[in-house]
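Pentacotripeptide-repeat region of PRORP domain-containing protein
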Amino acid sequence: MGVKTMFKWSTKITSAQVLQLIRAEKDVNKALVIFDSATAEYANGFRHDNSTFSLMISKLVSANQFRPAEDLLDRVNKEKCDITEDIFLSICRGYGRVHRPLDAMRVFDKMKEFGCEPTPKSYITVLAILVEENQLKLAFRFYRHMREIGIQPCVASLNVLIKALCKNSGTMDAAFKIFREMPNRGCTPDSYTYGTLINGLCRLGKIYEAKELFKEMETKACSPTVVTYTSLINGLCQSKSVEEAMRLFEEMRSKGVEPNVFTYSSLMDGLCKGGCSSQAMELLQMMISKRHRPNIVTYSTLLNGLCKEGKLQEAVEILDRMKLQGLKPDAGLYGKIISCFCDIGKYQEAANFLDEMVLGGITPNRLTWSLHIRTHNTVVQGLCKTDPNRAFQVYLSMRNRSISVDSLTYSSVITCFCKKGDIHKSARIVDELVLDGCLPDEGTWSAVMTALWDRRKMRQAAELLLLQLMNKCVEAEVDIQNQDV
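Structure:
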């Protein structure tokens, strides 16, 4: 069925009808079909306007379909349709969201080509994207350009500049200089200004200065936001002032400022690092009761704290809760739980979690790879004492997935099968050890030779071989004597 027959437009199709249908359609591709079917009505006098183009471009950007969005932008220009900066800014923000700041700059530069003069709002939007993506040199150059073309500083632009300066310890003083000069420029610092500075101080560990600024904020009738409270709570937790952080948490709630997932996660992190995982679990329950969904950081914090205190049962429950919520635990979290099981000698359970990782397609990253190798080797070495067959399975899995087998693991597996009298497996592993460029140590050779010697037929063969060698030696000596004569 063609697009024209999919919709029966009235004889007088209007932009309002097109807008209503596109807005109601959640599937971006179907929304584009509606847009195109309206385009097919150009023959009947309909024309897309700024509103329909803007909505369709916005929907495409939200779905990260940037190329079709820019193609539509070019159509706006070709069809001589009125164009506003908001269309461009929606694409710029989209590129910023997916960490493509240079593309945001490119679209911004297109504005003048399309006859759309950027206002201070556009400049500040692009400046904020550059700062957020840590393109600081470019951001400072862009800010100087803004000043050169006569864009006057305002609270919004100075807030973005202060945020850029707060990202490095060496420029914090410059951030405070601008902050103190703001009133002289006719700009009054707002909650965002204070929050940015407090966050910068906390990241640098300057908690005393952050608390003083927090007090000043209240004297200026500037109400702290949830972001400001969370920055200070996180800073206090990092400096091990967890009790003070808890008091601040209660204060924000009493003032009607609702904590967010980052507030809860920061407090849980402080409590877990202080050995108070039970209190952290209570916070989790409070968080869920307030309909805040824990994120991967929340769960990771709790799981690490519970493992540190040896509360394995609760740690496994947290792992299960993560999976039920649709969050995928990474190799680092699995490694923590597996290590905990190894610490208490439960190697079977540890091996089960290794299997779960493999089945789930979970692979370590560069940072957790060494832990991954160490965990596997520990599990195999532990299983050699309790379940040799399972140890061999994990060992084979390691080799199949190119996970390095260390010399102690080789020795453990070989010794284990030698004691069982399974010479074939032992010999196979010795071959693989040598192929990997390792040399068996004295203990490993001793185990192999003992196993061979213990087999009756092998012992008889060895004794017969020794007798033959002795006879050959005697014959050789007689030959030499005859040659001398």
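Residues 458-485 form one domain.
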